[in-house]
Amino acid sequence: MEPQVRIRRWPWVVIALSLAVAFTLSMISPADSVQGDLVRIMYVHVPSAWLAYTAFFVTFVGSVAYLVTKNLKWDRIAAASAEIGVYFTGLALSLGMIWAKPTWGVWWTWDARLTFTFIMFFVYLGYLALRRTTDDPIARASRSSVLGVLGAIQIPLVHFSVVWWRTLHQPPSLIKPDGPAIQDPLMLTALIIGVIAFTVVYVALMVKRIELIHLDERRLQIEQSIERPVAGEAVTAPELGAT
Amino acid sequence: MSEWGWVAFAYGVAYGSLAVYATSIAIRIRNARKSIGDAE
Question: What ipTM was estimated for this complex?
Answer without folding.
Answer: 0.92
